[in-house]
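Troubleshooting: if your tokenizer reports a length mismatch, compare your output against this known-good record of 233 residues.
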Amino acid sequence: MARYVTTDLHGCLLTFRHLVENVLHVRPEDELYVLGDYINKGPDSKGVLDYLMYLPQQGYQVNCLRGNHDQELLDAAYRRKHLTWLSPADQQLTLQSFGVSSPTEIPAQYLAWLDALPYQLELPDFVLVHAGFNFRLPPERMRADLHTMLNIKEFTFDASRLGGKRLLHGHVPTPTAEVQRQVRVQAGAISLDTGCVYRHNPELSHLAALELDTFELTLQPNIEKVSYPIARR
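Known-good structure output:
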């Protein structure tokens, strides 16, 4: 059995499927963890959700966390906030993948799936979260600070707050060379967001997957076949 972690798919269905099926060769007995941000920015948000929902139906063990973009889509669909949702071009790209003109028209099964996603997962040796934690808070408050878990961009890691476990997260696009360094030294906190969706940035444009027991890092280049605009945030 192998355990793989990846993150920040952002609509890059072809790249993700290729990584899962042809590079990692994920088997039903393996465990796949995905740390959020399945939608927005990339060409096929709906396709990514369809694939993530399809894999467990075929007997695969897939554990998905909630990301800030997933939460923002829910907020827009349920009219929870009066905020601008993405840039107009990026908003259109996401809605187009669902074949709708408004987030309120996205089919209920996708919203229900997103709304059931947990904010964090704890394994015997790792803690998984989308963005990170505010390590200045007491441990019990830190693990209940949902906004920070989805959105924090900088933090000072404190292993004692996680019982000595390593932290794996995404959210902030990180150059592949830096992720490779973090994995090589087995850092206490490792960012696995290598900015797959940013296909024209040579320091990013990869989907990273870390095998937890061997600490082997796989970097799959973006292979999306269509051109798409990129939101700036």
